[in-house]
Amino acid sequence: MDLTELFGEGWCVTLAPAAAMEVLERMGVTGVAEVPDGLERASERLVRGGDAGVLLLGREVAVGWSVVVELEGTTGWVGVDSSVLSALSDGGRVAVSAYEDPNQLEVHVARDGAVVGWLDAVTGRCFGEGFGSAGKALTAVGFPLAGAEELSGDAASLGPSERAVLALRMVTGVQLTEDLFEGPWIGGISMPGE
Asked: 186 and 21 in contact (C-beta within 8 Å)?
């Protein structure tokens, strides 16, 4: 699956082990509501510009896991904010966010209340320590942890956005597919920095 093909060159996808409403609230959304036309509404906000806050859209995608999508990165990506990602992983859990801005495509991993590392999906290089079992899973599909210089295996055969999806799956066990992004969402506005 190619998230850049699906969303264009500006997106953030966060996977967290909780109900969608709880994940959205931890990401600073107040007044979570149904948003049947969520991705269309997010696209309209981008065209209009100048809207306050960031529209975050969430849904449950697997037993015990939710995905949150944001398409407005003008004030930074909420899902990649270290305090937000840390809060999503609190209590021994793992949470992960991938984002793309022009010339950047990264995956950030948090475990047990702290960001433990990130990987550059363009080059495949990993940064940070303490990936734990996530590091072993990433290495198994060809991400160059532990001093390796180049991608190999499955990771080497994919484009950067597809590598990000692979990394998300290896860290969480959640397989993202295009149909998971269709249909109604729940969501609301997050006011970063407040």
From this structure: yes
For 143, the 3-state DSSP assignment is coil
The identity of residue 87, as a single letter, is A
Q: Give burial (CB, 10 Å; 0-12/13-18/19+) of 82.
A: exposed
Residue pair 121/105 in contact by the 8 Å Cβ criterion: yes
Residue type, 149: E
CA distances from 112 to 40, 66, 92, 95, 160 (A): 34, 17, 4, 9, 27
Cα–Cα distances in Å, from 11 out to 96, 132, 179?
14, 27, 17
pLDDT digits (tens, 9 = 90+) for 31-85: 899 998 888 888 888 888 777 889 999 999 999 999 999 998 878 899 999 999 9
Of the candidates 109, 120, 103, 110, the one whose C-alpha atom is nearest the C-alpha of residue 155 is 120
Q: If you search the block for the tokens 């999508």, which residue do you land on?
A: 69
Residues 11 and 69 sit within 8 Å (Cβ to Cβ): yes
pTM of the entire predicted model: 0.94
pLDDT digits (tens, 9 = 90+) for 7-21: 998 999 999 999 999
Non-local (6+) Cβ contacts of 73 within 8 A are 10, 11, 12, 99, 101
- Are β-strands 126-127 and 185-190 bridged in parallel, bridged antiparallel, or unpaired? unpaired
Q: How far apart are CA 43 and CA 24, in angstroms?
A: 19
